[in-house]
From TrEMBL:
<keyword id="KW-0460">Magnesium</keyword>
<dbReference type="InterPro" id="IPR031717">
    <property type="entry name" value="ODO-1/KGD_C"/>
</dbReference>
<dbReference type="InterPro" id="IPR011603">
    <property type="entry name" value="2oxoglutarate_DH_E1"/>
</dbReference>
<dbReference type="GO" id="GO:0004591">
    <property type="term" value="F:oxoglutarate dehydrogenase (succinyl-transferring) activity"/>
</dbReference>
<dbReference type="Pfam" id="PF16870">
    <property type="entry name" value="OxoGdeHyase_C"/>
</dbReference>
<keyword id="KW-0560">Oxidoreductase</keyword>
<dbReference type="GO" id="GO:0005739">
    <property type="term" value="C:mitochondrion"/>
</dbReference>
<keyword id="KW-0479">Metal-binding</keyword>
<keyword id="KW-0786">Thiamine pyrophosphate</keyword>
<dbReference type="GO" id="GO:0045252">
    <property type="term" value="C:oxoglutarate dehydrogenase complex"/>
</dbReference>
<dbReference type="GO" id="GO:0046872">
    <property type="term" value="F:metal ion binding"/>
</dbReference>
<dbReference type="Pfam" id="PF02779">
    <property type="entry name" value="Transket_pyr"/>
</dbReference>
<protein>
    <recommendedName>
        <fullName>oxoglutarate dehydrogenase (succinyl-transferring)</fullName>
        <ecNumber>1.2.4.2</ecNumber>
    </recommendedName>
</protein>
<feature type="domain" description="Transketolase-like pyrimidine-binding">
    <location>
        <begin position="4"/>
        <end position="200"/>
    </location>
</feature>
<dbReference type="InterPro" id="IPR042179">
    <property type="entry name" value="KGD_C_sf"/>
</dbReference>
<dbReference type="GO" id="GO:0006096">
    <property type="term" value="P:glycolytic process"/>
</dbReference>
<dbReference type="GO" id="GO:0006099">
    <property type="term" value="P:tricarboxylic acid cycle"/>
</dbReference>
Length: 359
């Protein structure tokens, strides 16, 4: 269980840690109970930072943190499930209070859920944070073509019931947390956090991506060779999360860097209609693909498909590439996991996959 609270009005930072957070407290091996918390020594007049344990009771702890966040709107309260799957024991807190609390009681809440999520061969109980459930409860209209005003991004955030993101870079993670506390209103924030990206050599950001003048990018467009000559691009793959790194590796191995563009959605809900529209128009002759590592009846596809069709006014299909429908979130067999991965990567970069098909 991992929870942290950052209070701005009365500074305090509270952190319940597990897994890769254990380096937050240094223990003296020679002096009993002599510890050092480096985060308490970053700069003068900083918020105090305290580390402690919490019980492994998702229902009880998430209920407490939700109440803390509601009573303390100037606090940045983060709760992390041990694995994303484990939030299901706190489902009533999510359904009854988080997704609909503002609509029912006109109470804002800025709690942040950090849900480890990713198809990493860990089996059905340690793979999926069930993004499809959160997206199903999102209140943005898939069929309404929005008006892109100057303050469209902020208006979307103000009108939504919560924000759902899957950050693929450290900069995105930094900026979405920073945005969460700087917004002039409060909305619950759901962050899917793949464990494998903690140490992935490609999942890195320059400090230039986090300096003054930068902000959270709801969508990260293709910035490689394909973006330089969009008329030559045969296929645009939209995706979110860690599958991006598997896609770029496969694209390079097949020498398709000039013919396949790969675009990441960092924010899934509210859906970035304006940015996706611009990307589709840039690659006007290319096939549109949604690629996800989750099974077809899970993940993001059922949420994004009608929104893509609204953007293109049902004139072009958005083809699905990913795992087949299934009852369990993931296979418990590592070999089967790798076979499924190989199958959808082959489909993603076979430019003849959907020739002759209609939608």
């Amino acid at each position: 269980m991992f929870t942290c609270e950052l209070m701005l009005a009365h500074p305090h930072f509270l952190n319940y840690l597990s897994f890769s957070h254990r380096h937050h407290v240094l223990h003296d091996q020679d002096v009993d109970r002599h510890t050092c918390v480096p985060m308490n020594h970053l700069w003068p007049n900083q918020a105090p930072y305290t580390v402690c344990n919490s019980s492994l009771s998702e229902y009880g702890v998430l209920g407490f943190e939700l109440g803390f966040a509601m009573a303390s709107p100037n606090a940045l309260v983060l709760w992390e499930a041990q694995f994303g799957d484990f939030h299901n024991t706190a489902q009533c807190i999510i359904d009854q209070f988080m997704s609909s609390g503002q609509a029912k009681w006109v109470r804002h809440n800025g709690i942040v859920l950090l849900l480890p999520h990713g198809m990493e061969g860990m089996g059905p109980e340690h793979s999926s944070a069930r993004p499809e459930r959160f997206l199903q409860m999102s209140n943005d209209d898939s069929d309404a073509y929005p008006e892109f005003t100057q303050d469209y991004e902020v208006c979307q955030l103000y009108e939504c019931n919560w924000i759902v993101v899957n950050c693929s870079t450290p900069a995105s993670y930094f900026h979405v947390l920073r945005r969460q506390i700087l917004l002039p209103f409060r909305k619950p924030l759901i962050i899917f956090t793949p464990k494998s990206l903690l140490r992935h050599p490609e999942a890195k950001s320059s400090f230039d991506d986090m300096k003054t003048g930068t902000n959270f990018r709801r969508m990260i467009p293709e910035n490689g060779p394909a973006s330089q000559n969009p008329q030559e691009v045969k296929r645009v793959i939209f995706c979110t999360g860690k599958v991006y790194y598997e896609l770029i590796k496969e694209r390079h191995s097949k020498d398709l860097d000039n013919h396949v563009a790969i675009t990441r959605l960092e924010q899934i809900s509210p859906f970035p209609f304006d940015l996706v529209k611009a990307e589709i128009e840039k690659y006007s002759k290319a096939e549109l693909i949604w690629c996800q590592e989750e099974h077809k009846n899970m993940g993001y596809y059922d949420y994004i498909k009608p929104r893509f069709l609204t953007i293109v006014k049902h004139s072009r299909p958005i083809w699905y590439v990913g795992r087949d429908p299934a009852a369990a979130p993931a296979t418990g067999n590592k070999n089967t996991h790798l076979v499924e991965l190989r199958r959808f990567l082959d489909t993603a970069f076979c430019l003849q996959s959907f020739q002759g098909k209609t939608f």
